[in-house]
Amino acid sequence: MTRDLVLSILKTRKGYVSGELISKELGLTRAAVNLAVKALRKDGYVILSSTKLGYMLKSAPDRLTSGELLTVLGPERMRTVSVFDTVHSTNRVLSELAYDDPTDGQIVIADAQTGGRGRFGRSFYSPDGCGIYLSCLLRPETPPASSIPVTAWTAVALARAVETVCGVQPGIKWVNDLFLGGKKFAGILTEMSIEGESGRIRQIIIGIGINVNNPPDSFPDELKDTATSLFAETGTAYSRAELACAVIRELDLLRLAWPDGQDEYLREYRARSITTGRTVLLLDGSGRTASAESIGDDFSLCIRYPDGSTDHLTSGEISIRADRYT
């Protein structure tokens, strides 16, 4: 959209930028540039104007838009990034787009979800204006069984992005949740589609939800004891666009590293684990507890039961605290 292109120029130039220069650079009329500036102001951008000098962006709201992402990612990467105000779920939208055969690395990102999903059919709280809800399409050549660790790889990529932008070090709860202050602030839902005839992977859709600027008292009663946000833990509001771009860049690095870079991701996954060394409750209906001893070379969770027997969990869910889900 015109306003996204105008915003990109205003955000990347220091001081005033003449309307004539913007017009020439974008191939637009001066009237079109003026309308774009008016639209941006309506969205909360404070843009100063001078008859002789042109326009200057003074301040910007925290918004997830194509214009905000374009400023950081550039036009080439943005060709495969689709940005929405509200969707049912980004995984569903990307799954629908996949039938048109989008390229590996296609991104869908939304400001809000009305049907955000977590693992095992749980809903994922996805209010507007607070979080990042993002899905990425992968089409790896590796067999389905050896592609299972992609969720753990994504947890590392997400932790790296958060640390880069926010300066905090998230912990990873096996296998797919990111924690700060003992509470979950981000989760990952991976959905794999396999061709029936060949047994090959048709696509992997990685869904990511991050609580970024949610106020501490904004979570529903059923989540207030287990969920948190980056803002709630640090007292700092972060640019969701900047963080979303960092996540996309880390996902691009993940795609380039897959599958040969496993040692690096495994080493970091182990270092960030908040599960090992703890007593866990297996959420499989059995009520069993075990000691989480280590992360296996395949990202499995190696556990030891009270009777001394051991097991390697490659899927499923555990609680670090036996008295409630965390």
What is the topological layout?
Blueprint: H1 2-12, H2 19-26, H3 30-42, E1 46-50, E2 54-59, H4 66-78, E3 81-87, H5 90-98, E4 107-113, E5 131-138, H6 150-166, E6 171-173, E7 177-180, E8 183-194, E9 201-211, H7 230-234, H8 240-257, H9 262-272, E10 279-282, E11 289-295, E12 301-304, E13 310-313, E14 318-319
Parallel strand pairs: 3-4
Antiparallel strand pairs: 1-2, 4-5, 5-9, 6-7, 7-8, 8-9, 10-11, 10-14, 11-12, 12-13
Helix pairs in contact: 1-3, 1-4, 2-3, 4-8, 6-8, 6-9
Q: What do these coordinates show?
A:
This protein is 32% helix and 26% strand. It has helices at 2-12, 19-26, 30-42, 66-78, 90-98, 150-166, 230-234, 240-257, 262-272, and strands at 46-50, 54-59, 81-87, 107-113, 131-138, 171-173, 177-180, 183-194, 201-211, 279-282, 289-295, 301-304, 310-313, 318-319. It is elongated and about 80 Å long. Helix 1 crosses helix 3 (30-42) and helix 4 runs parallel beside helix 8. The chain is an alpha+beta fold and 326 residues long. The protein has a 7-stranded mixed beta sheet with strand order 3-4-5-9-8-7-6, with helices on both faces. A 5-stranded antiparallel beta sheet has the order 13-12-11-10-14, with no helix packed on it.
